[in-house]
Design a protein that fits this description.
The complex is a heterotrimer of chains A (343), B (400) and C (252).
Chain A: H1 2-32, H2 39-57, E1 60-69, E2 75-81, H3 82-97, H4 99-121, H5 131-153, E3 169-171, H6 172-175, E4 184-186, H7 187-209, H8 211-221, H9 223-228, H10 233-255, H11 265-280, H12 285-302, H13 305-310, H14 314-329
Antiparallel strand pairs in A: 1-2, 3-4
Chain B: H1 6-25, H2 43-66, H3 74-90, H4 95-117, H5 122-141, H6 145-148, E1 154-155, E2 178-179, E3 182-183, E4 187-192, E5 195-200, H7 201-222, H8 224-234, H9 236-240, H10 246-271, E6 274-275, H11 282-295, H12 302-319, H13 322-328, H14 334-344, H15 352-366, H16 370-384
Chain C: E1 4-13, E2 16-26, E3 31-35, H1 42-49, E4 57-62, E5 65-66, H2 72-78, E6 80-83, H3 95-108, H4 123-135, H5 151-164, E7 169-173, H6 181-197, E8 201-205, H7 209-215, E9 218-223, E10 226-231, H8 233-238, H9 240-251
Parallel strand pairs in C: 3-8, 3-9, 6-7, 7-8
Antiparallel strand pairs in C: 1-2, 1-4, 4-5, 9-10
Helix pairs in contact in C: 3-4, 3-5, 5-6
Classes of the chains: A mainly alpha (343), B mainly alpha (400), C alpha/beta (252).
């Protein structure tokens, strides 16, 4: 029992990332009818927003501290970050420590801006083009974004830490009444899951309870009808693209401490997120979220040693296998609507 | 001639002449001149032109004719490479059985994947093929390590149990791949004055197979079967209501293109007997899509052009470093020189992929028909200057 | 016993009864029109005949064989061809190629691997295609891309492609919808010519009464998913129920 709970918990953080990316993909697909292969790159850029902020905060100058000496006996150089200098060591240190959560604030405008530019500058011209063209052009864009990041940040993963408080693990099992040390869970993963839940809840609430959201939902259900109503849906769709970009970006920001950001993390997540969207059902937001968590947890179960010993390698392919089975038996996915992306 | 009409035959002839003279044509600059870095006439690169040409020609039979966009074709290439290397390990260093096996294995593998993937179309098909390819890639890295040798990649060793042939040569090294005794890496260098040309056995094998592949592709394009494939792309509804089952047609195209990919994979291994899982990664699948689109999907010559173009510039761009850039811009004042180097730097050397991505976007946005369409547009510009034959073009106006 | 027998066909979409107990018999070598107001279930009925939809209950027999559960291309191979409301042709192919495909389909069946035969050498197929195009008066446009033809010519081509398969039954779904008067008359003439020259049964769904009364020998009137009456054109014209349900509407 505790092993099962542990695997479910282990699957939640990856599942959260899948769900958030898939949510954005579905928003874009549902509203704009565009298959966005560059969405993983947005996730990756989000993670690099965290890296960037952490670097900015760590900008420092060097002074020679006469009281200290290095191992050769010379006066030691001491680095002081500007932030600490301005705000005092305590406040400044805390801010640097909290770079990743702070990057949320930093990334939202950045991601929305990137989303707007992408939609207005590129995607807009592809609404009427075949899906193959959309896939191809966004695929090209994904390569470009990835290479730009690689150019500025290099090819190696950049470790980006969570705040001190959330580093390390705690014994989750004891809280649930299991033996000590049965379920050890890192704090940050729990934070990530909670964060994802808040974002997902926020997006759904936004779509459910605002007029804007209602129009968008109507637009997803039937684009032409809404256009007949004379509502300027295209403008709202642009905003929707910005939101989807922001969601992917936020997912990336918070994922940075879990997996050190590297330039190709977007591609890695994109392929899986696409599979998630397809399993959930093209155009279904709840489907995307459900499938995201489901596949994350499933992947985590498949990587249990007990299962791997029976089916070696299953952890590597489980998601794809599920996707293939779902696509063949339930072409619309778990919660897909009729008439979406059918011939 | 050869079952082709005059135009196709002359196209084949031109490609044949170009392919056979490639070692000379691609080395237009004297060996020790500054321009020699733009030469492409060395065996390794020319082999890649031909091999990726085959890969793209095959991909075009599927994508160009039926419109089914597969994002998993690299899997077949990888499978072909593995099969070929195993053939070298177990049977003989002769490339013929290796290539045959890689084509057959890739064909069977694509039959399986195609059979399942083609139950869906459009984006679902793309994602299914992508999923299969990623699955193969992951498996090759993990469980299938006994077959694929995991991350290291499959290589020949000194104690391969080769049935026809020896495990190691007399001087104790690994034998090399050959075609009935002609070693694939064998080449003769011809020197004419300052020019030098490498005539390589490996390249000519690749070139001959590329020509054969090209010929078969032309035949398929011009056959009733090719017409049916174009019909699928054009209007699947009418296809069905004309009493035709589109699925076996698409599957046949899928398998044929899978076999082409297998041939390319087998050839890669024949030129350099190793195979790694990274050949199956989806970026590799993306690359062949790119070649086909860049050259012109659905055209005969497009994929060959696209493959050559990408492989050539990949090679050239990768070689350009800051030193080369400085020498290019050295005629400028120092400040501007440095600025130019800084500006160009991200796009060359290791930044080749950035250029590739941009190029890809530009082609999809502005030139969906690829280089071939670009060429036609330019040709039309010139033709328009002659007053007479304006009306007889393909865009004739409706009669009513 | 007609060539096409539809018995007690029902089809529901969710809460909507699209077809309710439809019975229809189309006599061999006749022209049978199905008319009715929008939403009467004409298109649903047609889709049930060609395998695009499967009725909930009832049977559809063609020449004594059930078409239900068969794939659309199998039904087509049985001898039923369909002309669509918007012409469905191979827009990327030339007019001549468009015409060759049904001839191949007629000769080779649902699938044949002929990857290395040259279509240029298929003299008989080309000859047949050219003969068909000549009949349709489209021979001048045979090397044109079919997508660039006028709508009327696309319709002619589509009808020609269906005929090239020598079907027993030709189904037409509002063949003159959205056409100019001249094109409509051309299409009527073409269909009349087909009816006179060929051994063929035609079932036609049409809105345009001018077309219906120029062609049809029998007319079935559908209303709210069920057949209202079936009779000859003369009787239908005067039928009070029909006037009320349908003609009255259009007249008003």
């Amino acid at each position: 029992m505790d092993a099962i709970i542990l695997q479910i918990l282990n699957g939640l953080d990856k599942g959260s990332a899948y769900a958030l990316i898939a949510l954005g993909l579905t928003l874009i697909f549902g509203t704009l009818g565009v298959v966005n292969f560059a969405h993983g790159a947005l996730f990756m850029i989000g993670a690099f927003c965290a890296v960037t902020l952490s670097r900015i905060l760590n900008l420092s100058y060097e002074t020679i501290d006469p009281n200290k000496t290095d191992f050769l006996g010379n006066p030691a150089k001491v680095k002081t970050t500007y932030v600490e200098d301005w705000l005092g060591p305590e406040m400044g240190g805390a801010i640097i420590d909290w770079a990743v959560p702070l990057a949320i604030l930093f990334s939202i405008p950045v991601m929305i801006a990137i989303g707007f530019i992408m939609e207005r500058g590129l995607i807009k011209h592809f609404y009427k083009r075949p899906h193959a063209d959309q896939i191809l052009v966004t695929f090209g864009l994904a390569i470009v974004l990835q290479e730009i990041i690689k150019y500025f940040y290099g090819a190696n993963p950049i470790p980006t830490g969570a705040p001190e408080v959330f580093r390390g693990s705690f014994d989750f099992g004891v809280m649930l009444g299991f033996d000590p040390n049965a379920i050890i869970y890192p704090y940050w993963r729990l934070v990530y899951f909670a964060f994802a839940a808040v974002i997902i809840g926020g997006v759904f609430a936004f779509l459910q309870f605002t007029t804007f959201g209602m129009v968008v939902r109507a637009g997803m259900a039937d684009r032409e009808t809404v256009q007949l109503l004379g509502i300027n849906i295209d403008k709202r769709f642009t905003i929707m693209f910005g939101i989807a970009a922001a969601v992917a970006g936020l997912a990336g920001v918070m994922y940075a401490p879990i997996n050190s950001p590297n330039y190709h993390m977007g591609m890695d997540f994109l392929v899986l997120s696409f599979v998630v969207v397809v399993v959930g059902g093209m155009g279904s937001l709840p489907g995307a979220v459900l499938a995201g968590f489901l596949l994350g947890v499933l992947e985590s179960f498949a990587s249990m040693n007990e299962i791997k010993s029976i089916l070696p390698g299953i952890d590597q392919i489980i998601i794809y296998l599920v996707a293939i089975i779902i696509l063949l038996t339930r072409p619309r996915g778990l919660m897909g609507r009729k008439g979406v992306m059918e011939e | 001639m050869l079952g082709l009409n005059k135009r196709d035959f002359s196209l084949l002839l031109i490609v044949a002449v170009l392919a056979l003279c490639a070692p000379f044509i691609l080395n237009p600059f004297p060996a020790d001149s500054a321009m020699a870095q733009f030469n492409a006439g060395y065996p390794d690169l020319m082999q890649r032109f031909a091999i990726y040409g085959i890969f793209a020609i095959g991909f075009n039979i599927l994508f160009g004719l039926t419109g089914y966009l597969s994002f998993g074709h690299a899997a077949f290439l990888g499978v072909g490479s593995y099969s070929a290397v195993w053939m070298f390990k177990l049977l003989s260093m002769n490339v013929i059985p290796a290539i045959l096996l890689s084509v057959v294995v890739a064909g069977l593998f694509s039959l399986l994947i195609g059979f399942i993937s083609l139950r869906r179309s459009g984006i679902y098909f793309s994602i299914l093929t992508l999923a299969f390819a990623q699955m193969s890639f992951n498996l090759a890295y993990s469980v299938l390590t006994p077959i694929t040798n995991g991350e290291t990649g499959l290589q020949l060793t000194l104690d391969d149990p080769r049935i026809l042939g020896v495990s190691r040569t007399e001087d104790g090294s690994i034998p090399v791949t050959n075609l009935f005794g002609i070693e694939m890496r064998e080449f003769t260098t011809l020197n004419f004055g300052n020019w030098s040309f490498d005539i390589s056995a490996g390249y000519y094998l690749c070139a001959v197979l590329m020509l054969l592949s090209f010929y078969i592709a032309i035949r398929i394009f011009r056959s009733p079967f090719g017409m049916m494939l174009r019909a699928i792309k054009s209007n699947n509804t009418r296809m069905t209501y004309t009493g035709l089952n589109a699925r076996p047609y698409a599957l046949a195209a899928f398998v044929i293109s899978g076999m082409y990919a297998g041939l390319a994979g087998g050839l890669l291994a024949s030129m350099d007997p190793l195979a790694g899982a990274e050949r199956m990664q989806w970026t590799a699948s993306g690359e062949v899509v790119l070649m086909t689109i860049l050259g012109g999907a659905g055209t005969l010559i497009g994929p060959v052009l696209g493959a050559g173009f990408i492989k050539y510039f990949e090679n050239i761009f990768s070689k350009i470093n800051d030193g080369v850039l400085h020498s290019w811009f050295s005629f400028m004042p120092d400040g501007i020189e440095n600025l130019m180097v800084t500006l160009v730097h991200p796009f060359v050397g290791k930044g080749w992929h950035l250029t590739l991505g941009l190029l890809f976007m530009l082609v999809v946005i502005f030139l969906p028909g690829g280089l071939v369409e670009g060429g036609q547009r330019i040709a039309r510009l010139f033709r328009r200057k002659k007053p007479d034959d304006a009306k007889k073009s393909t865009q004739s106006t409706p009669a009513e | 016993m007609g060539i096409l027998e539809v018995k007690n066909v029902n089809k529901r979409f969710g809460g909507l009864q699209a077809l309710g107990d439809v019975n229809l018999s189309v006599a061999e070598n006749s022209v049978h029109a199905i008319i009715g107001p929008n939403g009467a279930g004409k298109s649903t009925l047609l889709n049930c005949l060609i395998g695009k939809l499967i009725p909930d209950t009832g049977s559809v027999m063609f020449q004594g064989q059930s078409v239900l559960g068969r794939k659309p291309y199998e039904i087509n191979q049985m001898g039923i061809s369909r002309v669509f409301q918007t012409p469905e042709i191979f827009g990327d192919l030339t007019v001549q190629e468009n015409m060759m495909i049904p001839i191949f389909a007629k000769r080779d069946g649902v699938f044949r691997m002929h990857a290395l035969e040259s279509s240029l050498n298929e003299k008989e197929i080309i000859d047949q295609a050219e003969a068909m195009l000549e009949d349709l008066n489209l021979q001048d446009q045979r090397h044109m891309q079919s997508a660039s033809m006028s709508r009327g010519n696309k319709r002619r081509l589509e009808i020609g492609m269906c005929l090239a398969q020598t079907p027993k039954l030709l189904l037409l779904d509002e063949p003159t919808a959205g056409m100019a008067r001249a094109d409509t008359n051309n299409t009527i003439d073409l269909l009349k010519q087909i009816k006179d020259e060929r051994d063929i049964t035609i079932a036609i769904i049409e809105h345009d009464m001018h077309v219906v009364f120029s062609l049809a020998e029998r007319i079935t009137v559908l209303a709210q998913g069920s057949p209202l009456v079936e009779d000859t054109p003369e009787n239908i014209k005067g039928h009070p129920k029909v006037r009320e349900a349908y003609l009255g509407e259009t007249a008003a």
